[in-house]
Write a structure and sequence with these properties.
CATH class: Mainly Alpha
Number of domains: 1
Largest sheet: none
Number of strands: 0
CATH architecture: Up-down Bundle
Distance between the termini: 45 Å
Helix content: 55-70%
Oligomer: single chain
Strand content: under 5%
Order of helices and strands: HHHHHHHHHHHH
Shape: globular
């Protein structure tokens, strides 16, 4: 009987944690969708579209910097590195590199020419803080909000430790998917339709990278009520800054006042359903 009661309590705790974490993700997913809608509410030049794509490319290609640690992991495979962890690590790098390639192809179509290396890497910056990854790409003078995201990431790891902080921050990958879903629905001209197709492909991976991981997270990390409070607080903090990074990527179409309203849960209507 004692075992049954403990199992039920643990299950209820995990279910509540999953619900609260998903609620945070849904809130900021809706906010990130609003950023995209705000951008397309007014006309833009090809140069502006190109700049948005270059900014998003920088978020994608930064993952390739993990190739050196991957080689080190390989040397410790089956000793201190789990095979599934290693495979997941490589898969993530490959998928982010593919996203970069998809966006770079679209950027070259918009520009009508081949991109230079300087353009392709203009907005490269690490997406989150990882011990030992090196400092050269932890900041980018062109991206103040992305730089602040690194500060939030560092603070998260300082409090929670990397073992918990890394999987928690990964739940936010893609900002919950709202920006990609909103892009998928774009129609009306060739750029919008090409962007919709690109984001549809990318979203398939981003859902796997982030929100799909929520279900398994509580079983490993949530043991008490205070764990729920601590992880949801940090996920909210992290995603609030991610929203500001998204706004930066799209050229700041949403005001600081409106971003604060989204933080308070004052959300515009958003339908998260999608057909991949």
């Amino acid at each position: 009987m004692l075992t049954s009661r403990k199992t039920t309590t643990t299950g209820e705790l995990a279910k509540r944690a999953e619900g609260e974490l998903n609620a945070v993700i849904a809130q900021y997913s809706a906010g990130e969708a609003e950023v995209v809608r705000a951008y397309f509410e007014r006309p833009h030049t090809s140069e502006e579209h190109l700049d948005v794509l270059l900014r998003q490319m920088g978020r994608e290609i930064q993952a390739a910097n993990r190739l050196r640690p991957a080689a080190e992991m390989f040397q410790r495979l089956e000793v201190t590195v789990d095979r599934h962890e290693f495979a997941d690590y490589l898969e993530h790098i490959a998928e982010e590199a593919e996203h970069y390639a998809i966006l770079a192809d679209l950027a070259e179509w918009v520009a009508g020419r081949k991109l230079t290396a300087d353009e392709a890497f203009r907005y490269e910056v690490y997406a989150r803080w990882v011990p030992g990854q090196g400092e050269t790409k932890e900041t980018n003078a062109l991206l103040p909000e992305a730089n602040r995201q690194m500060e939030v990431s560092r603070a998260l790891v300082a409090e929670l430790g990397f073992e918990l902080g890394n999987p928690l921050s990964r739940l936010s990958e893609g900002g919950g998917g709202g920006a990609y879903i909103e892009c998928m629905r774009l129609t009306g001209d060739e750029f919008r339709e090409r962007l919709a197709a690109a984001m549809r492909r990318i979203l398939q991976d981003e859902i796997h990278h982030g929100p799909a991981r929520v279900h398994g997270f509580p079983e490993q990390w949530i043991k008490a009520d205070e764990d729920i409070a601590r992880t949801t607080r940090w996920l909210r903090t992290y995603m609030a800054q991610h929203l500001r990074v998204r706004n930066e990527i799209w050229g700041y179409p949403v005001s600081a006042e409106r971003l604060a309203a989204i933080d308070r849960g004052e959300l515009a209507p958003f339908d998260p359903t999608m057909d991949l």
